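ARCHIVE CARD
Drawer: 12
Card no.: 0347
Subject: one protein chain, sequence and derived structure
Cross-reference: see card 0346
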Amino acid sequence: MSSAPDMLATDDEIDLADLFWRLWAGKKWIVAFTFVAAVIGVIVAMGTPPTYRADALLQLEEKSGQLALPTALSDLAGSEPRSVTEIEILRSRLVLGRAVADAHLDWEVVPNTLPLVLNAVVQLGVPLPETGLLDPYVRDGESLEIDLLEVPRHWIDMPIVLRVAGAGSYVLDLPDGRSLSGNVGDTLIDADLGFALSITTLDAPPGREFTLRHLSEMGAIKALRERLSVSERGRQTGILELGLTGPSAALAERDLDAITQAYLRQNISRSAAEAESSLAFVESQLPEAEAAVRAAQQALNQYRQEQQAIDLGFEGQSLLTQISGLEAELTRLDNQETALAERYRPSHPAYQTLLSTRARAEARLAELRSQIEGLPQTQLAVFNLTRDVELAQEGYVQLLNRAQELRVLRASTIGNVRIVDQARTAPQPIAPRKSMMLALSLVLGAIAGVGFVLIRNLMRRGVQGAEQLEAMGLPVFATINLLADAADQRKRKGNLPLHALTHGDELAIEGLRSLRTSLHFGLLDAQTRTIAVTSSAPAVGKSFIATNLAVVAAQAGQKVCLVDADLRRGRLRRYFDVPKVHRGLSEYLSGEASLDDILVPGPVEGMFFLPTGQFPPNPSELLMRDRFQGLLAELDSRFDLSFLDTPPVLAVTDPMIIARSVGATIVVARFDQTPLGEVEAVQRQFMNAGLRINGAVLNAYDPRRARARAGYGYSYRYEYKRDDRAG
């Protein structure tokens, strides 16, 4: 037949009720972890220096609106750039390097800030004393500004400590170990070393420290790139949103403005460079075109002189004009065909109309060229030479016009980027987000507390219920509930109270009465009425059970003797206010005292206490003497019950020696603390010695922490107290 826990939870299932009660039992740990995490979160949130964010807005636009340029220059003027390309340009070394150089972003001034905890204290409004230990730390409102910093190449990225010496003066600790002094407003120069520093503003009391660095160009660019974010607002809008974080609002705004201005200048220079390159090419072609015009004119004039030829006349001039017009018309039609081919098929009506027009023009041109062949030889030569001159002049004029247009374009270039919003910083920092950090710390603290409780329970694997002990073959005589002040009992110094007398109506004492009843019936067949109370390890409540069990037995009218048989660390005397020097069991076993000399009357009639006496160096040897057997026989003759509080079984061998002579032995296990493996080890030791454990007691049972399983747990939470109001 399966036990209750097996019926409710299998190995592949999670018992949510069990999990809840385990977490509920460890709620103090969870609250403690959460509280500690909250304190840490507050310290981090208040002590972390603020981070500000500056933002700017750029628009990428077309260039064609600035001048009405001919079609030949429209491609040169450019079109709307791709946002992805411009984002990469913004993050390139070209732009960021110019920003670093223009705004001197490779000069780093870092104040020596307060530690995290002290900074949090200051942010909470608690003033710090001006002591020597706190003098180097820079407070809010104190600042340092420089307008010149030159260092040798081997000092790049190395710290230079500046310490305020007085009003307007400072001392520098250089990387080579030397110190230099300077004044605000003066340029501190070391020509041999190649070092120069000029400070414009120093607003800090003496003792404050700042760290100066001249960063390498690549280091400054990398640091700037890590703080920069660029994204397109919307999709294919051509609007770029720039963001830059910094330790102060002014620095973030200054750095982002330097980036936007550097990007704007490179964009303008890039557009001007395109026009400049085209202009240089056109101007390089002008001399050749001019020479071609002069050569054509010289050839025409020379032919006329040699042949004494006259002008073409009206007929020839008319043919020349018509041919030139038709050739220009064909060029225009070719351009139109290229545009139509991208939009229509050749079968489209518009495409067919263009083809028909071009065919007629070509037929007319062929007809005119055939008429030229009918001219006289002299006029034909003059016609060809005149045509060469016109073609050369036309090419030269086009180059002159192109050069003039490019000069105008170069002079009017403004780029294709417009700054919509200048760099500005919000007055409130973006980090640390105190509320979010506090909420996150609470969540993480709670998670850590839950994890600690679960791991702690998993590793401890203590006894969870009486049925676990019974499954090991140990009958459980009683389950003793946890006392309300159990923690105080373990930590208390001096005398200890007897709860059976002071809190007789508690469930724990009722459990001891149940144990008294169980022992009464369990000892009916025993040869002696002596009971040894032991445990597997210390701190399980063994002494508490032995002492209060003796009290409740005496309250029932039995004559009881309580023996502190722990000759190594016995402390039952603290329950009865017996001094350490009082003689006891060790003196009796060594023959130095009789039983009447060492018995101490208890607080209840019929109860007596036998203390340990002085701790002997050989407790095991004393217990093995025949005198111990005689003591048990005499106790059995004088008392109805005798309880012997023994040391833990797994610690020493004394309990095994005592168990050989007593009538019964009970083992105390503490709820959720005593591992089952320890109880099994105790069983093995008794079995190997040929002894028997009569039963067990489950102590300090806490119903709130017990696993909520059917079959146990609920019965130990019932209370049945006396009602004083009853008539």
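Annotation on reverse: Residues 1-12, 64-81, 708-727 have pLDDT under 50 and may be disordered. The chain has four domains: 16-48+432-458, 110-214, 282-417, 473-717.
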